[in-house]
Amino acid sequence: MKSWITAVFVLAIAALLITLFLTGSSAERFAITANGQPKARIVTGEKPPETVAFAARELQTFIKKMSGAELPIAAKPDPKSPSILLGPPAREKIPAAELEKIKRDGYIITVTNGDLCVVGIDDSGPQTDIEELLKQNTEDLTLWMFNRGTLYGAYRLLEELGMRWFMPGELGERAPEIKSLSFSGDIRENPHFITRTVGSWRLHKGYYKDIKQITVMPGERAEIGFEPVENRIWLMRMRGETFRIPLNHNPPRAGWAARFATNHPDYFALQSSGKRVLEHGGHLCYTHPGVLRENIEDIKAFAAGKTAVERGIPSTARNSTNLVYPYNRNWSYDIALDRYYSVLPNDGFIACSCPECLKMIPTNAVPDKQRYSSLVWPFVAKSAEAVPEMNITCLAYGSYAIPYPGMQKLPPNVTVGYCAFSHPSSLLYKDMFDQYEKAVKEWAELTHGNLAFWQHYLGSNRSEENVGMPEHTPEIYAKVIRTMAKFGNHAFCEQMADSVMFELFNRYLLHKLFFNPNLDEKEIFNDYVMKFYGPQAGPLIGEIYADIGNKCVEKYKNRYAAYSFWEKLFDVKTMKGYQSKADLALKKARGEQYKKSVTAFKKYYLGLMERGRLRYADPLALLLESFNPEFVCRPARKPVTVDGKLDEPIWKSSPAVTISNNLAGKAVMNLTAVKTCYDSQHVYFAVSASNPGMTNRAVQGGDPGTADGIDIYLDVPHDHRGYYRVGIDLTGKIYDSHCVDINEPARAGWDSKATAAVVLSASNYVMEAAIPLESLEAPESNLSAYDWGALIARIQVSAAITNDRLSSTSRLLRDSFNQPNYFNNLRFTDR
């Protein structure tokens, strides 16, 4: 507790110093309105930039909403009236040395010689006509890449006066009734993060054609009045990015397969089968001179102003949302924009197995996130060295997320996007944050400039089985962002776009912190609940959020699986308590806007949670009858011989877990029992499987799922996102694969180095297996400090009862084994 208080005190002092720096100490007070009457005029200068003219109208509109006074807009000052000078006229009053300190999206707000000056960097021309762009309702990023710093200064001034925009549309607006408005001080702000991408809240009609309807709350958008065009203007009011570096997968967006598959199949990754990987734009051979040459020519062509078609990239080359890029010379702005070019490999990276690539891939055991680093990063470096006038970007991602041993510092024009540990809330688990910080520092030492960061927020709600799981962890969000700010200035965060209310505060908080990481997340939250839900209802909604926040922290600290989440944390009693508080908040809410906000929270935040719980009604009923069994993994004091005999003392004393079918979680006809134990180098599994008439049938081997056998699934990080799989058929043959993330294809090249033995008898078989801890990237000491996720599955291709064909140790799992949320807990003990 003492250390926490100290940390808060230090943060408060730091915030105070920053505030003093930003706001200065000027005591000159500028009157804007008095008793509902205008006291100043808005001055834009002759022929102002379109963005400044728009800023004047926005300032006029919201000052009137707050005070009732409509300030006149004029081209020139009136000697009889104080002026709010926007853009060009403000530049005439502020010293040039001060103006030079303004960066992109930054501004100065200051009172000078009796006038209020608001100024930033502004572009002009028809392409910056915001009202016209809003009419087009366009999502083309390149159309919105223009400077509008004075507009952002106007929004910041309005916030200082009390105006708030908590979400797109009228429901999100909060204009306090203040008849007399005035400003004093000196605000000089530049955003810390240049790229400040916060997911997509577009929700176009038909935009997400394949979205699973269970993740969308019916009627939400209509009830809260959300329209896609309002999201764009809300992003501006949040002072969102006006520039974004490209940092996405190159092969599909540069049309590699379309351009080269026919004449240069050797450009693509060679598989052991002899086939080339052409799917999804193609996976490339990163040692092939031709691939490097064509990649460099692409970059040079873009830098020289050529169109994508001139480089042979088909006009049909598109991204996953079927957008073309007419305003970027048809280059995908996900890979090519301004002076930046992304060479990021394809998703679900498949390494080439040609002789030259194999030379670059380590043959010894290395961390999975480092396996192909020595293949990818030299390619990135060579690309950057060849085109020094361009900035080359690439994510540290997947199997090349960790620098390889002896890696040299990258060229100065390389921007590394850090992607590992990409879910901030997951860093609450044990020493994960320390690991994250260490890894970021390691990359920072290999780069000359600021890092970029790619992260997943609201990660617990990304897949269908996790629907309705809230993520309210503002403290770890802020902690991670402040760490990011030490080493980088570009931030991308993916979020679900399937709900507005469920993500509302998270999005609002991220926009605030990406602009200024030193803001206090607690103050931002308090301001949000008190002003969005109202002073009477806000504290009650805040109490619900606080309890949800505490439970979310508990979830991530303990890495609870989905069923534990609903049973241990958000049970029926807890949800009823939230609903009761929300009902009371609704009674206390005064004013139509506050009532609408509380109603929306109750229906679409708590409602989505309730919907998530309903998905677990059947599994929860099973839990009440018999909790999902847990493996107790005890240390073996004497050596374990993998021979299928199970005659060691540890097997006699270890508790067994039985198997249930995957259709209803019911017991199978042929009893199957599983035990486990470990020593300093291996984790062991023993399976005793009843199988009448075993000796009367020929034993068939085959890939997992095609022949009788046992599959061992191990979620060693226990993050419910991926697993190692060791499949063993009844001939004793082993089949390995590694799924890093269930959203990506499993990697078949992983070698478990496991050993196994199968002993058959007339009515059953016994299978014994040992898996080296080293192969699992697991610690070889003090395992009792860890829990894993584990699932032991049995396949009976010709089961007497059809329902028993697929069975596993999880009583909650249905259908596919590929669901780490439903794995059993494997608990290591020290005795």
Structure keywords:
831 residues; alpha/beta; 13-stranded mixed sheet; seven-stranded mixed sheet
Characterize the structure shown.
By secondary structure, this protein is an alpha/beta fold. Helices cover 31% and strands 18% of the residues. The chain has 23 helices and 32 strands. Strands 20, 21, 22, 23, 24, 25, 26, 27, 28, 29, 30, 31 and 32 form a 13-stranded mixed β-sheet that branches. Helix 2 links the parallel strand 4 and strand 5. The longest helix is centred in the last third of the chain and has 23 residues. 47% of the residues are buried.
Alpha-carbon Rg, integer:
30 Å
Round the mean pLDDT to the nearest integer and report it.
Answer: 88
What share of the residues does DSSP label as strand, in percent?
15-25%
The total of beta strands comes to 32
Q: Gap between N and C termini, in Å?
A: 33 Å
Global structural class: alpha/beta
Give the overall shape: globular
Helix content: 25-40%
Count of DSSP helices? Answer: 23
Q: What's the SSE blueprint?
A:
Elements: H1 2-23, E1 29-31, E2 33-34, E3 37-38, E4 41-43, H2 50-67, E5 73-74, E6 83-86, H3 88-91, H4 96-99, E7 107-112, E8 115-120, H5 130-136, H6 149-161, E9 164-165, E10 173-174, E11 182-184, E12 186-189, E13 195-198, H7 220-224, H8 228-237, H9 250-253, H10 256-260, H11 289-303, E14 336-337, E15 340-342, H12 355-360, H13 373-386, E16 391-396, E17 414-418, H14 432-444, E18 451-456, H15 474-487, E19 488-494, H16 504-515, H17 521-532, H18 538-558, H19 562-569, H20 572-588, H21 592-614, H22 617-625, E20 631-635, H23 649-653, E21 657-658, E22 660-661, E23 672-678, E24 682-690, E25 709-715, E26 723-729, E27 734-739, E28 755-760, E29 764-772, E30 787-795, E31 806-808, E32 824-828
Parallel strand pairs: 4-5, 4-6, 6-8, 13-19, 15-16, 16-17, 17-18, 18-19, 20-23, 20-32
Antiparallel strand pairs: 1-11, 2-3, 7-8, 7-12, 9-10, 14-15, 21-23, 22-31, 23-24, 24-29, 25-26, 25-30, 26-27, 28-29, 30-31, 30-32
